[in-house]
Amino acid sequence: MTPLIAALMIVQAAPPSMPAPGPLSPESLSPGTVTVAPLAADQGPAEVRNVVAAQVERALSDAGFLALPAGGRGRYTARVTITRTPRGAVTSNARERRADPVVGNWGAGLSVTMPSGKRQLRGLIVTELRLELIRRGETAPAWTARAATAQAEGTAADDPSPLAATLAAAALRQFPAQSDAAISVP
Fold first, then answer.
1. Within 10 A of 167 (CB to CB), how many other CB atoms are there?
2. End-to-end CA separation in angstroms for the chain
3. Helix axes 46-62, 160-172, angle to 10 degrees
4. What number is the average pLDDT over the span 24-32?
5. What's this model's pTM, rounded to 2 decimal places?
6. Mind listing the domains of the chain with CATH numbers?
7. Quick one: how far is CA 142 from the chain centroid?
8. Is 134 within 8 Å of 77 (Cβ atoms)?
9. What is the Cα–Cα distance from 143 to 131, expressed in whole angstroms?
10. How many Å apart are CA 116 and CA 103, to the nearest integer?
11. pLDDT at 72
């Protein structure tokens, strides 16, 4: 037997090696049970972190996942990161005051502020939500998505609840497809 034939026989007799673990294909991902991990303390005040987690949980449920209570052992753990970056200033309509009752020495009255049409300069804040789904027992994300929006600071559109709901729903819209780019939300 020649050395070349002996080497080929050894290679053929060796068991096939297992492929190295890598990113999962979109076909191997499907909705299942999920637990939303608590947001890190540096993600804002506790009330805001709780609102964001609740909105992400709601978006996951809408996408076909079964959200388990905190501490549950779901098929996935959802890890959420929120970043807010100031990007200059924009003009926006001034907030109008509500009607205020007035009581004084001469009787009672009602103070009403008429719309003035004045515009205010407000900070422009870019908010990005990053959502990672990690399979139980693993540390690397099986799926990641990002969604971002720019809003004038202090406006209704910049309120944590609707902002988190909009961004989480946008991020989950592409599940199970992967994309490195952030989804832009108006």
1. 29
2. 72
3. 40
4. 73
5. 0.72
6. 28-92+119-184 (3.40.50)
7. 16
8. yes
9. 8
10. 25
11. 87
How far is it, in rounded angstroms, from Cα 109 to Cα 99? Answer: 10
Q: Give the bridge partners for 128, in sequence order.
A: 83, 148
Residue pair 166/149 in contact (Cβ under 8 Å)? The answer is yes
101: β partners = 110
Residue 176, pLDDT score: 92
Closest to 57 (Cα-Cα) out of 83, 77, 27 = 77
pLDDT at 113: 55
Residue found under tokens 């992967």: 178
Each residue's pLDDT tens digit, 117-142: 667 889 999 999 999 999 999 999 99
Q: Residue 61 corresponds to which amino acid? A: S
Sign of the CA dihedral with 27 first, then 141, 171, and 71 last = positive
Give the C-alpha separation, 111 to 84, whole Å: 37
CB 100 within 8 A of CB 132: no
Q: Which of 55, 85, 78 is nearest to 145 (CA)?
A: 78
